[in-house]
Amino acid sequence: MIRFDDVTKTYMRGQRPAVENLDIEFARGEFVFLVGASGSGKSTLMRMVLKEVNPTRGTVYVAGKDLSRIPSWKVPSLRRDIGMVFQDFRLLPSKTAYQNIEFALAVIGTPRKVVRRLVPEMLEMVGLEDKGKRMPHELSGGEQQRVAIARAYVNRPSILLADEPTGNLDPSTAGGILDLLAEINERGTTVVMATHDRAAVDRMQRRVVEMVGGQVVRDEAEGTYETHAPVSVISGHLPDDSAHRDEHPLEDEGLAERWEGVPAERSPVEGERAAAGETAAADDIAAPAAAAGDVLEEDLIDEREAQQVRDEDLFTDEAFSDDAFSPEPFPETPLPEQSEGERR
């Protein structure tokens, strides 16, 4: 379903890679927890699955497709099969819960008859069948996250990515969100969840992948949040965020050769924004800024990349059709004749 073959991603020349020599695969129907300190590469991994950023080196496969071979104009179609849930919900504040879910269907041209059937089904699935007319500010944090999950899942994506979906919720509410994601997984959707929620990981006992400094240092089939492995940051065996990672080469069990030595080349910028299964909001509106203090790898992207993202997002599928381009995009236009006096 998702495979990384020797993938390295460096955002800016001279900086250490956000993801380095990544070789990992997530099978269809799996529920996987991504754990690790902030800056360990979890968000970059998800952004590459969405083809929001391209690897500097290596190949990413999603649903059997080599993402490097997918042109820009086909990316929105790819993302319709990938749902995305965020820590800060990212609901449209001027729309009701019903309309937020409806919007995800409307932007892909779903017939009204189908919309009227699917949206109530989603509200019922997430336990909000009586709150479809509520505005986001009238819902609790847990209810807002349920609406966000319904919006991400309404198109029945084969992959659901969740970036800290319980990070802003109390333990009891977080448990309900986790149960909802487990139910979606049981319906056949592959769920990859990046989290710092120790209780969630320990409770579920699913596959746990820990990342340190952009590398996978642990991959356990039925793991817990902490580990006895000496290469773990979250278990306290390495300094947080691997500030002294040069002193800790990941030689245990052959997980890596050394931290240093990877070429720091800037990859070409693809220039599109994460749409995800949160298809509606992410394709058509700019997502709000991440919560204060939440350090993500995208903070490394310079303003020029961000501007190109905004510019590229103005294009639609039709804009990239074969008929949209003239064989001579800059035809010469003869200048009008000028008299000698005008030239002077």
From TrEMBL:
One of its GO terms (molecular function) is ATP binding. Residues 276-294 have a biased composition (Low complexity). One of its GO terms (cellular component) is plasma membrane. It is found in: Cell membrane. The keyword Signal does not apply. Residues 238-248, 303-313 have a biased composition (Basic and acidic residues). Its main location: membrane. SUPFAM superfamilies: P-loop containing nucleoside triphosphate hydrolases. It is a peripheral membrane protein. Residues 230-344 are annotated as: Disordered. Residues 2-238 form the ABC transporter domain. Signal peptide: none annotated. Coiled coil: none annotated. Gene3D superfamilies: P-loop containing nucleotide triphosphate hydrolases (3.40.50.300). Keywords: ATP-binding, Cell cycle, Cell division, Cell membrane, Membrane, Nucleotide-binding. GO terms for biological process: cell division. InterPro entries: AAA+_ATPase (IPR003593), ABC_transporter-like_ATP-bd (IPR003439), ABC_transporter-like_CS (IPR017871), ABC_transpr_LolD-like (IPR015854), Cell_div_FtsE (IPR005286), P-loop_NTPase (IPR027417). Pfam families: ABC_tran. PANTHER family: CELL DIVISION ATP-BINDING PROTEIN FTSE, IMPORT ATP-BINDING PROTEIN. Part of the ABC transporter FtsEX involved in cellular division. Has ATPase activity. NCBIfam families: FtsE (TIGR02673). Homodimer. Forms a membrane-associated complex with FtsX. Belongs to the ABC transporter superfamily. This is Cell division ATP-binding protein FtsE. It comes from Brachybacterium faecium (strain ATCC 43885 / DSM 4810 / JCM 11609 / LMG 19847 / NBRC 14762 / NCIMB 9860 / 6-10). The gene is ftsE.
